[in-house]
Amino acid sequence: MLLRHHTYNRATALAPMTVLLLMGVAVAEPVPDTRPAPAPLPLSVQPSTQEQAPPAPPQAAQSVPAPVIKKTRELPATVYAKVSEDPTPTLAPATFLATMRMAEHYKALAEAGGWSPVPAGTSLKPGDRNPAVAALRGHLVMTGDLAANATHSDLYDEPLVNAVKAFQARHGLPESGLVQRLTVAALNVPASVRQRQLAASAERLIGSKFPFGERYVVVNIPSATVEAVENGGVARRYVAVVGKPDKATPSVETRVTDVNLNPTWTLPVSVIKNEIIPTMRKNPGYLAKNHIRMLGPGGVEVDSTTFDWSGEKAVNYMLRQDSGFDNSLGQVRIDMPNKYAVYMHDTPSKSLFAGNVRFHSHGCVRVGQVKEFAAWLLQGTEGPNGAGSTWGPIEIESGIATGEKRDIKLVKPVPVTFVYLTGYATPDGRAHFRDDIYGLDTPGTPAPSAATDVVTTGSITPRPVIKPARAGQAVPTTADLVPAAPPVTRAKPPAPAPKPEAARRTPSERPPAREREFLPPGLVGPRG
């Protein structure tokens, strides 16, 4: 009705003469319509899209509803710090002798006066001219990064940029070619200090019986990297997070025997005592929220929300975190039996892999791209589908997706070593340096409280600990074992034996027991 009414009004509005002209004269020019445009049609009779109706005027931006963002548990893309792609391993059979010879070379450099310092605050990019370039050139010629016959000028030219990149690679710095704060700091370490780093690292290798083979793994703690070595070259170097100075990662020589998918995590006594008990006093639901079960004798589960947390009785119970997305060990654990009970593992908190300084764990080694590393370890091991199948990244992901805990035994264990090399030389004649994060190169400094045994409740008995060798010290022997408690000195002459009732000493009379030190596994997030 609305459309008919609208058309009727338009037809009757034309003059009779106009209608005749329109109908009888075919060649007549159309008469322009000077009347105002009709009102827009109601929505019920708007033309369809097939009629090519003129587009509606754009709506104001504020009227467009914001897109709904779906919440997801999917992790954001992980950013990894760039590490060297040099195929030369940190540790090889020739490393010890090469490092000893390099220490002698740097001793000669130090005795000759070393190198001139680069002024603090120097900043150079390619093409710059700066008086500091002279000191930079002199240093890099002495260390073999720049040819002795290179052009001498104050221009930061291409050959010098390439020499700086080589220097940065040897010191574990980003190979940018830019001379900035970190590069200047490394340049200004005296030759005598570099010599001491080389000599101390060589001393720490004395007595090593590491079984080099076709395939082995090297974790250089100061580098915070994991190297998968195959046929004498680095097949892949992975970013790692290692122990912080007060929870240092110990030196270890052992073999990788198993890869655990969807592992559980048993909390060490030290974590229960120092973190869990204080937390549970304030928040009784903490363990349940984090899927941590409390197990008593015989593995009977105890209700942690009703447990008495006022004392320290909880250290006598086993606290075990279920496997899953939020488990502190992540989705993969690399099992490598050793007296310190440390290992390599995944982590749900991967943001620390992006940093150039990665000393944050409680002693264990967190490995970036650990699933790829696990696939390398499992080469030759029969896959999940029987004979002829393999454990590649897809199979590992599929195994994790089941949510079931699975232990995969390597068909051939892979040797692994955790070493502490702040200075070392490779057979090609290059010297490499890293920061002495634990202070082991300086004689007389206190030993870190790192190389200690892990005690997990209800499972492992504490073992005596061999302290790591320090610069200028002999290699530790069994005589260096830390006793669990000091010996009791007997009085002379012995007093008459008291009656059995009086033979018991009161607590105040007993000799103080030496407190054992514990190294918990690598934690994640705010806990390490």
TrEMBL record:
Biochemical pathway: Cell wall biogenesis; peptidoglycan biosynthesis
Biased amino acid composition, Low complexity: 46-65
Pfam families: PG_binding_1, YkuD
PROSITE patterns per UniProt: LD_TPASE
Assigned keywords, A-Z: Cell shape, Cell wall biogenesis/degradation, Peptidoglycan synthesis, Signal, Transferase
Gene3D superfamilies listed in its UniProt record: L,D-transpeptidase catalytic domain-like, PGBD-like superfamily/PGBD
Domain L,D-TPase catalytic: residue ranges: 215-397
Family: Belongs to the YkuD family.
The name this protein goes by in its record: L,D-TPase catalytic domain-containing protein
UniProt organism field: Methylobacterium haplocladii
